[in-house]
Amino acid sequence: MAAQQPKSDLVLLDVFGSPFAQRVRIALAEKGLAYERAEEDLFAKSDLLLRSNPIQQKIPVLLHAGRGPVCESLAILQYLDDAFPATRRLLPAAADPYERARARFWAEYSDRAHSCGKRLWMTTRDGDGHEEARAELLRVLRAMDAELGDREFFGGEEAGFGYVDAAAAPFAAWFRVYERYGGFSVAEECPRLAAWAARCARQGSVADNVYAPDKVCELVELYKQRVLGQQAR
């Protein structure tokens, strides 16, 4: 029997709950691009994923019309801007290299919220590294709050929801997790960032592709149980 052909030129290997995969789906939605999802199980990775990303063996991976795979979420966002120039652009215009460089920096910087947050919720409040992770996470959130300033979105008043917003919006759904495990309020510590998170949640591309905060809290508990259960074997 012949192998089944993809229904779209774009195939995304992802996990729905992954914020890194979510940022790619947000970008695809903002651009109005049709694609096919291939849901992965990170505890039982498919041969397709292992072949497509043999070095990292991680999602997301974008396959485009039989070309080689594009790995890493931010690289995929930039690729979509370049490969589909007729769609809504996320990065600032090529004529403004300074703003493009700043956008790339802050999008990459937003990853620190997730890495610090994970260290926070994977440890107990009196455990090793918990206070350091909490302090570092707050530094990251405050830095992003300061960079956002009084703008509605990181893309600015003219561009609106853009590259940094698409990259960072999935992490906003984790604010409740950070608050629960860190014992602080994002709205009190970073009021402008909290207001930005609420605006992002109302963005159609985000609402359709990012879990609600309560669901994220539930997934964190399930993940911890599964990982800690495997470590105990």
From TrEMBL:
One of its GO terms (molecular function) is glutathione transferase activity. Its main location: cytoplasm. It catalyses: RX + glutathione = an S-substituted glutathione + a halide anion + H(+). Keywords: Cytoplasm, Transferase. InterPro entries: Glutathione-S-Trfase_C-like, Glutathione-S-Trfase_C_sf, Glutathione_S-Trfase, Glutathione_S-Trfase_N, GST_C_Tau, Omega/Tau-like, Thioredoxin-like_sf. It is an enzyme of class 2 (transferase). Residues 96-226 form the GST C-terminal domain. This is Glutathione S-transferase.
